[in-house]
Amino acid sequence: MALYKVKIFELLGNKCAKCGETDWRLLQIDHVNGGGTRERKLGVKEGSKRGNSAYHHIWKEIVKEGKKDKYQLLCANCNWLKRYERDELTRDRYPDQPTFIEIFEEIRKGRTEFEWKGRKYPVKEISEEETT
Description:
alpha+beta; two-stranded antiparallel ribbon
């Protein structure tokens, strides 16, 4: 597993594609167009039959299938910012609910409720009892 990860990092340039960070402990393999969770599950399922990992699946796609552009290395900060900016955190999992970004923006505006897709959502204050 570690060997595949090292080789993938080398193939993807050993640095964050956004900020240039090179500390390997902070680097993460990112799916440029999303879909990483689905692919990790697929890779682990396929790999478990042969004792391989999701890293083997990614390595195979990059080396044998020429899909290097499908992946990039991002440091942890850049990866989380990408997820936030592209709304990858909640939109796929909860398509019928407002996302964290939408809720956060409404709270920042000081609203006590907001409407999303025709439904009203209250913005509740946190009481003292809830903080202890």
